[in-house]
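Deliverable D4.2, example record:
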Amino acid sequence: MYDQNALWQAMVYDLYACYYKYRDPRAHIMYYQKHLQAVQSAMQTRAAGSSQPQGQISPGMLLLRVLHASPDAPAVDIYLNGRLVLSNVSFKQISDYLQIPGGQYRVDIYPAGNQSSPVLSENFLLMPGIAYTVAAAGTVSNLKLLPIVDRPFVSGGETKAKFVHLSPDAPAVDVAVKGGDILFSNIPFMKSAKYITVPAGKIDLEVRVAGTDTVVLNVPKVQFKADTAYTIFAVGLANGNPPLDAVLAVG
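Output generated by the structure prediction step:
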């Protein structure tokens, strides 16, 4: 996780910077510089533990992470409301959850290190108390942002998982235990299946063309731990490079 104290400071300084923008230019610059320093600190300092959210979301806040799932897109920088939050994010990379206030956000995606013009900009109303994954999906010629609602908190001893189809040229798919029962059925591109309860331990999975026994991807030895929620993302290309692959993320 990112350093939540630094993130909170960054948001407070941003509010002060906005307040003084037309009232006191010197105060605006001072608080904006403090905001940037706090953001930098949050990006560089990670709190101990995994990316699994701990406890509950703070009142008025939400959790947000970003996945780069566009197979032919270069590494990107990601901005929220004009502020850099993630830099040099490459294909298949998923960030930790970032805790931010609920509200209206503009997400701008730029080629890494090049802020001349965003390759994609979209506005989202993100509600407090909810965890989101925003996936940049599709090919560069048809790039889209897909907001996915996560439910990463689990009851004691519970293990659960959901599946998200982000391969732009793959048909609808089933996800099944290797040679066995289907876990997620007939999931098309840009759609997310609901969470299901899964047994803790290692399991071999396979992705099949929906309604058939045709296996398009084997996913061996997937490790599910107790007291944890997971999302399995199908990324890459069914007919091309980078090839079809699975990204397993906590949450």
